[in-house]
Amino acid sequence: MKLRSISIGAPRGNVLTALRGTLPALRRATVAVRPYAELATVVALAFLIGLFSSHFRSTDFNNYTRLADAMRHGHMWIDYPGAWLDAIEYNGKHYVVDGPFPALLMFPLVFVYGAQANQTTMALLVAAVCIGLAQRLLVKMHVARVPRLMLLLFLFAGTDMWWCAELGDVWFMAHLCAMTAVFAIFLELVGKRRGWVVGLLSLAAVFSRNVELFGIAFFAYALYTGDFARAASMDRGEPEPPAVDLRKTFRAFGAMLSLGVLCWIGYNEASWGTLFDIGHTVYFHQDSWGQATGYPFQFIYVPYQNY
Q: What is the reported pTM?
């Protein structure tokens, strides 16, 4: 059989012309992907730095793992390891007094690993997500790249975020979840200003750290005025964002908050058999730092906030 030689080459000029034609498209693609490459980089760095500095530990103060595992088994009382864990005795069982949202985040790991699920790992993931949300917020606000990266570095290493993430203890997990929810709220406020989203994220913040309840009025004000979205548009040199239907927005915002109140009542009923949260009051009565009677929110404790 006689084989013919087949030329698969192409004239050099045609190849160069084709390459020159693709360069603008490659440049556009690079410009479009660059912010997300930065996002992926800072998120990965935050997680990996925290992971290695944690020495792959699993916190013993894993209240949220225990609460998620308890809910998985259909009850609210936890498997109590001893007096070193922050929990209260109530009706012969032991309960955690912290907000339930971080426990909900633990559900995927608890379903796989049960009571051995690593709460520190989830804390590291939450911190990395928080850094990612902060990066997107700064991009939306048109902060230049170098100042943006410096601010992200300060957020991670200049605040207690890194420390909270690498330990993952109950109080620190709650702090990280609340921070992440608040950054997500800010990101929504500079963007679409959807009432149900701000409401849902507000619940996530409050159900992590109850004091975030005082932030809801501020979030509602920012939702109403649109100042965040307007300022972000001005920083980008863009026209003012389109007006939103405030009646529809606040209807969704209020509906979500109302749903949150019902969920909180249900959580209290399941835990204490009461409409209101009595967990911190009972803890105050049982803890050696507290008092046998009275209420934990007292003016005498204000000086403690200075430390």
A: 0.87
